[in-house]
UniProtKB/TrEMBL annotation:
The gene is alaS. The lineage of its organism: Bacteria, Bacillati, Bacillota, Bacilli, Lactobacillales. NCBIfam families: alaS. It holds the Pfam family tRNA_SAD. This is Alanine--tRNA ligase. InterPro entries: aa-tRNA-synth_II/BPL/LPL, Ala-tRNA-lgiase_IIc, Ala-tRNA-ligase_IIc_anticod-bd, Ala-tRNA-synth_IIc_core, Ala-tRNA-synth_IIc_N, Ala-tRNA_ligase, Ala_tRNA_ligase_euk/bac, DHHA1_dom. Residues 729-763 form a coiled coil. PANTHER family: ALANINE--TRNA LIGASE, CYTOPLASMIC, ALANYL-TRNA SYNTHETASE. Zn(2+) binds at H567, H571, C669, H673.
Amino acid sequence: MKELTSGQVRQMFLDFFKSKGHDVEPSASLIPVDDPSLLWINSGVATLKKYFDGTVVPQNPRITNAQKSIRTNDIENVGKTARHLTFFEMLGNFSVGDYFKKEAIAWAWELLTSPDWFGLDQSKLYVTVYPKDQDSKKLWIQNGVSSDHIYEVEDNFWDIGGGPCGPDTEVFFDRGQEFNNIPVDDPENYPGGENERYLEIWNIVFSELNHLPDGSYVEQPHKNIDTGMGLERVVSVFQHAKTNYETDLFLPIIHAIEQDSPYRYGQDEKIDSSFKIIADHVRTLVFAISDGAEPSNVGRGYVLRRLLRRAVLNGQKLKVNRQFLADLAPIVAEIMKSYYPELSDNMAKIQQVIKREEAKFAVTLNDGLKLLNSLIESPEVKQSKTISGSDAFKLFDTYGFPVELTQEAAAESGLKVDLIGYQKDMENQKERARKARGVTISMGSQNADLLNYQEKSIYKGYEEQVVDNCELDLLIQDEQKVSVVTTGDALAIFDRTPFYAEMGGQVGDTGWIYDQSGELVATVSDTKHAPNGQNMHYLAVLKELKVGNKYRLEIDAKRNEQIKRNHTATHLVDEALRDVLGPSSHQAGSLVAPGYLRFDFTSDEKLSSDQITKVEDIVNEKIFANIAVTAQEMPYQEAIDQGAVALFSEKYGDVVRVVKVGDYSTQLCGGDHVNNTAEIGMFKITESSGIGSGVRRIVALTGDGLYDYLKDEAAQAKSVMQELSVLKLSDGLEKVVNLKNELKSVQQELNALKEAHATDEAKALFEKVEKSGSWTYTAAVLQNLDAKELREIADKWRNQRISDLLLIASNKNGKASFLVAFSKERATKEVNAKTTINLFAEIFGGRGGGNPLMAVAGGKETDKIQAAIDEAPNIISTL
């Protein structure tokens, strides 16, 4: 058998399918674009869904790729099994309505067994098929697979619950019984069973059915091929590796970790697990950060934070005594440089993010250890001998402590952890995450009529807002092609149209359709692209529409003019942000609507008020300069050579449209724009926020929208002036300052009165010293004080050395506060304020914490704080 590097395996796969007429698609970003159903790109087909559901028809129906992917649904299994990974590469070949089972199976066998390609031993290859898919079984036999190497498995049916689906066939490599983890006679010892002998290396899905919402299955108009070969798995075959981790994709990382650890990989399974976890997680971190994700407390950022903390904790298990993860990043880049050179280009940022997060975790870890120790020492835990599931989950969720670490620490103190409660909190969190992503259909259904419709539709909206004699070429109603529609909703495509179809952030046009006599026959609520690129109109039909007839199409011109102003303004904003923030800032998304514009851009820092003002000033300066806006078509490379800005998320053809705002902005753009910047009127940013790690968003207004906004602001200012009884806004500002100063003076007087009241309360309190056992104590319920004010009384008590113990409580704004303070002389490690506070707090349903000399508890059962104070002699006598 050949011995191939990971780079050779990847390239050979892509070269093979390129030789079969496939276009090689570059690996897309791990961060999904316009797909809320996914947290990460998790497969090769994830970036091609628009082709498979018929939304878009690709230029070439044959596609192949090596797609970087992340799956995090079972992080806990990483390091414990031979195959679980969070980051992996999926090699795939895809047919969108082109070739099907015959070619897919023949090419798969050729790639796997031909000496010119992978050259694997045929006797070691097995396949599984869906029992009802006898065609696939026959095709494997025709290509040379022995019938006793084919297994029928009921699970061989790919279905995500809606949309394209169908039977699949899987290819397994027999690594021999010496690699197995079960006996030869075990019922699971077969290809597809739960064993380590037969390694699945390829899954080929025959996407021939459509799973409808009612649960039924119908044949797809266009049958597709979707395959997935895990690079890490197949490389382990060529490199005779027991697991994915003993390959050139992981071993250099593992060997680097060994340099900081007294342990060596391969000596002990438990130790090996920590090496694997770190190697896997650092690969995920490097690729994800390179693509723009960063650790945070939500979404994909939370996943990265969790992975980094898990890697750090496993480094501690290996006795790595320094921050080390950032030093592993260049090794990942070196391993992957043949196909992912951008990792090295982005290395400074990758290491900076990892170092920052690792240092932050060191602080968090220390805080978590303090919490864990306080839990172990708390009276409740000592009494119940159990750390609650909610506390264990808090340690995991907030401080990054795996539950295993909490269990180990608890066991050392003779305690256990409520794992059922912990798991319940974990499931609740997963459910919240699922709800946060929303319920979305992962892949839509095809419409054969739209997929097969190839006629051109010419967009005339750059020059005209009304176009006569537009021939109606296609009508769709209730998912069916029809020749006439008399009423109801419908989709329509004309040979020519002034209606812009939603694209590049610009929303679709709306408007009206008239017949040749001038009668209104339909309204257009939206315009989008059909699968083959035509402008498709969403209609509410009022009068008869008939295919072949001609109509006058008229867009809502006022709405379109507002959109144009906002679209040109986004180009100015993009350039102005680079002027203010530097060249590293670039567009990360936009929405151009009639009422406002939204612009997303990359930036690690929040925009300051000064920066917002500078961006506004620059954009308005360009607006007031009356700069001509021009558009011109030219070859893509010529446009790039002229400095045109292209969006990373967009794909461009050989000929592109270049929009220029004088010499200030040059961008590739197919959208609508004003003729002169003066038409924008004026520009103002109304919102600035963060929408994810390293991505910021501004919302802004121009033209009519800005006029309405300023009119509303003026009305509010007038109302404020009336309330302040002033005639000028400047006078109102002066009056507000005066009122603020008066309020400050009143607040100071109030604080002085409260201080005097607290002093009086304390004086009366300190005269009440009682005794319980060997303890002297002072106890009382005080009126309308918060925890801060109770602490101030406690400081006075301590300075005057009144008694051994102080117990004071109060109710303010419906919240009970209870303070326990010990004198320095009577506080011990076993008996102190921290260990005593919850003995009182549990009486009024509260919980507290603090230090050995002073602790405070809060609760909502304010009617029971007197009962807690009354219980003082009994509790103190037990100390």
